Fold:
Amino acid sequence: MNLIIRAAELADATDIVRLIAELAATDSEHSPITEVYVATYLSSATSKILLAERQNHVVGLLSYSLRPDLYHAAASCLIEELIVQEGVRGQGVGSALLVELLTRVATLDCAEVSVATMSTNTRAIQFYRAHGLAEEAVFLEKHFAR
Structure:
């Protein structure tokens, strides 16, 4: 498959915006993401993005944040987005990204990794379960108009 998983850099902003836009379009939505916001995101010490690259073309991303967790007295990792470019899905790109993340956070003495997905997204739920994640909580959100 010749897939490279690497940390995102500022020069990857166009590809990151493209993949986030593709994710939003899948749900008939629009993301306000810009290259400027990608730079802001990447400048945060706690926000990270892994990219999957094949033949010098970015085909997937996994964004995550690390934060201190009082209950566990250790770091906790939240997977924010996992996106694989349409046409490349089902070829192991998502698995490669998730395995790399799990490997990285294990070396950081992270207490847990969590992810939220829609309860109707059975494909994502099965994917995460297959990689050892289990349903343990209900994730609640409140969105604010922007």
